[in-house]
From TrEMBL:
One BP term from GO: lipid metabolic process
Superkingdom of origin organism: Eukaryota
Organism: Urochloa decumbens
A molecular function GO annotation: glucosylceramidase activity
The protein's name: Non-lysosomal glucosylceramidase
Pfam families reported in the protein's UniProt record: DUF608, Glyco_hydr_116N
Length: 927
């Protein structure tokens, strides 16, 4: 683990020719075998250090003791019903996470498998909400080379020091040749592709590149849903003898963990079309989860011969063992051709692990080149949630629900992957070739998108909603009938006011999409976090973004009277209130049972409703979709009206209620606050702009009248001459410099609306944050700390005030870009790259956490909010519709009568102290 002082050295990403010889890159430079100039890189011999999780201070532990006891009780109650609690800080994986991640496999929403940079397949998320982190060590690529007489090489294409290998020493895998040291092999990642270059390992005269390709293609709503990946091997023989090269793909009939021991698994060989052949592995999942079928395959042509071994075992009791399989490959480099006629195997016995292998063999002439292509698909057509709802995944709309659709998936992948790459290149090249952008930014921008695959995403076909709706009420009546808490916490059968279970809303015609807040925070589409992450979806898959917004718009008009207990204070309330924006779309019954989060009563939060209005207007202005604006308008009006109850003194500005009633759910806020107040001002302006666009001029005028009044209150109560105070309370945090205080202005500028404040005040605030929250933490090499006291010390009020939030840092950088502060913006965001992605940092690549502390302890790996880096790209290249929108101040378009104007002026005088809020320094900004 690097110490903090190592972060004082700034290093750019490794160039390809710094890790791989230039001659090797030139030799591989055909058929896209050579890695790109811009990529995230590691040697396979790099040490995968263990990551350090955060811990609370003694004071924090005492303060949260009652919450902890209530949470522990709730987790146990959920477990008794076979369910996972949305937040469980008490259960930890047996294997501590390490800095070993790489680009995940497949498209979005069909289950995901990650692949470490050293080659291990891990982080299995086939079942919604569950992530098995451990690698399945039998899943490997291996190579066998023979030249002339006795010159032979054989090795698994992964370094022998893999941690998981130690646990496999008794199952036959250790008998394989793990000869790769990895010091001459390198990994290059640019999501959704990755290149592994073996520069003379294990054969000194053979150069090998493995290119991993997944169909993540912006604006392509069909192929981006496919559960498939392709592995293209480029071979270059630099020797004087021709070489027989056999590549081997082995795969266990497993979805991670101990699922391969549950029995009933069946393997069968297949011969498809266009030379594609391989093995199907039918996996019978545990706990009544839907089955999964894997397909491993290779493409045969005049130069490549494909053979298979449908079944081998990992124990000595198997008819063909892992040791025997390996011996056959060393001896022959292929399997018996008759294996294709073997048919389906007998179901595996309880406790046995069955695997399959596909071999692709070719001859490579001296100084010759060759390409060998494999594919992996996993067909899990059904998604079943714990409270009974079952849907078909999005890809089944194009491939059907048969387990054998895995054959069609691998066939199409092997035929179409070049077209996928053309589309990926067309998308990425303009950004990669922009010389104005720092190299680290280009790399991180694309690689942070890993979350849309590995973030537990679920993408369903909307037609399956009809089936679920017909059965929903009947199935829910049968659930948990004997639970003593059925009429309170666990009752999911309460009527949903304003909700018709037969109503299907898929106007975007892209199905329904869910992504988790994080693998440790099991809630779908958590809205206060989606506020930051949604820029990625808006830029790349705007129809999905509009679909999610429609889901939340419908939820605004719904009520769920189910009583739940809020764990922070032990009080009881109802699950969902009409007018309140949902915190999330649920956990175990998404779209039907909202608000899985139950720490606080989120109907009292002050940021969710403004964030809803801001996202609606941003998406409306970016897409120009008038029908979308009209459809969500009633929800916007309802959400704005709901907020009026939080204006306790009638001055137009909402107040916080003295508890953590916003996304910083451990950081107490009192009275007028910079974060929520700024969001409210921005929401008033956005609501007015949307109303004006839809022809509701009277509503727009009312919003702008309130905006003018609330703005005066906000500035008078919080502006201190150089930034806005955290809140206007009397706590030690009240004068803290909050990194996220201009979140409302960020959205205002992103949507093409006029600024909320004078430009000088905005820039002064941003400079203050940069000077304190960014540069006074490890010299700006870690991102922006959430809270900083004016004396330059980190705000230690609570866990969250002292944390650096990765997504907030990216959004802060985006705000700086929107106001012409490019140097500050890229310096701020580079801190996330240095700490999270560089070799000098802590190893958070492809698992960017929600937060870390100044000493490098993380909280919540694989988190949604870091997708906010795409807000920076939206700031650099705004949507065309926003660029071309008329620059008219919304206030100028509100017809304010002289009497109303006098009323506003009188109101301002009443709230402003006679001697000036801050003495003589109100306009002498200390920047």
């Amino acid at each position: 683990m690097p110490s903090g002082n190592l972060l004082s050295r700034r290093k750019r990403s490794w160039r390809a020719n710094e890790l791989v010889s230039r001659s090797t890159l030139q030799l591989l430079d055909f058929d896209d075998g050579s890695p790109p100039e811009h990529a995230w890189r590691r040697k396979l011999s790099s040490h995968a250090n263990r990551l350090k999780e955060f811990n609370v201070t003694f004071r924090e532990a005492i303060r949260m003791m009652k919450l902890g006891l209530r949470l522990w009780s709730y987790i146990r109650e959920e477990a008794s019903h076979g369910r996972k609690a949305p937040i469980d800080p008490f259960t930890r994986e047996s294997n501590r996470p390490s800095a070993s991640q790489g680009v995940p496999l497949g498209g979005m929403g069909s289950g995901s498998i990650s692949r470490g940079f050293r080659g291990e397949f891990k982080h299995w998320q086939i079942t919604p909400g569950y992530c098995e982190m451990s690698p399945v060590m039998a899943n490997q690529f291996s190579i066998f080379v023979s030249r002339g007489g006795n010159k032979k090489y054989a090795s698994v294409l992964a370094p022998g020091q893999l941690d998981g290998l130690k646990k496999s020493r008794d199952d036959g895998i250790s008998s394989w040749d793990w000869k790769l040291k990895g010091d001459r092999s390198t990994y290059h990642a640019l999501f959704p592709r990755a290149w592994t270059v073996y520069d003379g390992e294990p054969d000194p005269e053979l150069k090998v590149s493995c290119r991993q390709i997944s169909p993540f293609i912006p604006h392509n709503y069909q192929e981006s849903s496919l559960p498939v990946s392709v592995f293209v091997y480029t071979l270059v023989n630099t020797g004087k003898e021709k070489a027989k090269v056999s590549l081997l793909m082995t795969w266990a009939n497993s979805i991670g963990g101990l699922s391969h021991h549950t029995g009933g698994h069946v393997n069968e060989p297949f011969i498809g079309e266009n030379g594609v052949s391989g093995v199907l592995l039918h996996h019978k999942t545990a706990n009544n989860n839907p089955p999964v079928t894997f397909a491993i395959a290779a493409c045969e042509n005049q130069n490549v011969n494909v053979t298979v071994l449908p079944v081998f075992g990992l124990s000595g009791e198997s008819s063909i063992t892992a040791r025997g399989m390996w011996g056959t490959m060393v001896q022959d480099g292929s399997f018996d051709q008759d294996n294709f006629n073997a048919g389906a195997s007998m179901p595996s016995s309880l406790g046995d692990t069955v695997c399959a292998a596909v071999s692709a063999s070719t001859w490579v002439e001296p100084h010759g080149r060759c390409t060998v292509v494999f594919a992996l698909a996993w067909s899990s057509p059904k998604v079943k949630f714990k409270k009974g709802s079952e849907y078909c995944r999005r890809y089944t709309k194009f491939y059907g629900t048969s387990p054998r659709s895995a054959v069609n998936l691998v066939q199409d992948a092997l035929m179409k992957y070049k077209h996928w790459e053309e589309a990926i290149d067309k998308w990425q090249t303009p950004i990669l070739s922009d010389e104005r952008l720092p190299e680290w930014y280009k790399i991180t921008l694309f690689n942070e998108l890993y979350f849309l695959v590995a973030g537990g995403t679920v993408w369903i076909d909307s037609e399956s909603l009809v089936v679920d709706a017909d059965n929903k009420l009947n199935s829910s009546l049968l659930e948990d009938s004997d639970s003593p808490l059925r009429d309170s916490t666990f009752n999911s059968t309460a009527p949903l006011i304003g909700f018709d279970p037969h109503e299907i809303d898929d106007k975007e015609n892209v199905g329904k999409f869910l992504y988790m807040e994080g693998i440790e925070y099991f809630m779908w589409c958590t809205y206060d976090v989606h506020f930051y992450a949604s820029f990625a979806l808006l830029e790349l898959f705007p129809k999905i973004e509009l679909s999610i917004q429609r889901d939340f718009a419908r939820a605004v008009l719904r009520e769920d009277n189910t009583r739940v207990r809020f764990l922070a204070d032990g009080t009881w309330g109802i699950r969902k209130v009409i007018g309140a924006v949902a915190h999330d779309l649920g956990a175990h019954d998404p779209w039907h049972e909202l608000n899985a989060y139950n720490i606080h009563d989120t109907s009292r939060w002050k940021d969710l409703n403004p964030k809803f209005v801001l996202q609606i207007y941003r998406d409306f202005s970016a897409t120009g979709d008038m029908s979308f604006g009209k459809d969500v308008w009633p929800a916007v009006c309802t959400a704005m009206e709901y907020m009026e109850q939080f204006d306790h003194d009638g001055d137009g500005m909402v107040e916080n209620d003295g508890f953590p009633d916003q996304t910083y759910d451990a950081w107490t806020v009192q009275g007028v606050s910079a974060y929520c107040g700024c969001l409210w001002l921005a929401a008033l302006q956005a609501a007015a702009a949307l109303a004006r666009s839809l022809g509701h001029d009277d509503y727009a005028e009312r919003c702008m009248l309130r905006f003018a009044k609330a703005k005066s209150v906000f500035e008078a109560r919080l502006w201190n001459g150089s930034y806005f105070n955290y809140d206007n309370g009397t706590s030690y945090s009240s004068r803290s410099i909050q990194a996220d205080q201009l979140a409302g202005q960020w959205y205002t500028a992103s949507s093409g609306l006029p600024p909320l404040f004078d430009e000088d005040r905005i820039k002064c605030t941003l400079q203050k944050i940069f000077d304190y929250n960014v540069m006074r933490v490890k010299g700006g090499r870690m991102g922006a700390v959430n809270g900083m006291h004016p004396n330059g010390k980190v705000d230690e009020t609570c866990m969250q005030s002292r944390e650096i939030w990765t997504g907030v840092t990216y959004s802060l950088a985006a705000t700086m870009l929107l106001h012409g502060m490019e140097h500050q913006a890229f310096t701020t965001a580079e801190g996330i790259y240095i700490t999270g992605w560089s070799e000098e940092g802590y190893g958070y690549w492809f698992q960017t956490p929600e937060a870390w502390t100044v000493d490098g302890h993380y909280r919540s790996l694989i988190y949604m909010r870091p997708l906010a880096i795409w807000a920076m790209q939206c700031a650099l290249s705004p949507p065309k519709s926003i660029l071309e929108a008329p620059r008219v101040n919304t206030m100028d378009r509100a017809h304010i009568s002289p009497g109303t104007l006098q009323f506003l002026q009188d109101s301002v005088r009443k709230i402003t102290p006679k001697n000036g809020c801050f003495g003589n320094n109100v306009f002498n900004w200390d920047c």
